[in-house]
Amino acid sequence: MQVPYDLTSYVRVLKLASTPSWEEFSQIAKIAGAGIGLVGLMGFVIFLLMSFITNPPV
Predict the structure, then answer these.
(1) Span 3-31, pLDDT tens digits
(2) Residue 13: inside a domain, yes or no?
(3) Which residues, at least 6 apart from 28, have a Cβ–Cβ distance to it below 8 Å?
(4) Is 0.85 topped by the overall pTM?
């Protein structure tokens, strides 16, 4: 592992990185929130299906 070479490449990447605009940040946050909500909804549906399968209503 070449430490000086790795450090210079990390510094170069950090110099190229920029702060996203508010529009870009809000779009990314909406998409990430929708993904989290979708995964949670799928988990809830699976939970309901499994609870009906293991304990059917009488």
Answers:
(1) 667 788 888 888 898 899 999 999 999 99
(2) no
(3) 20
(4) no
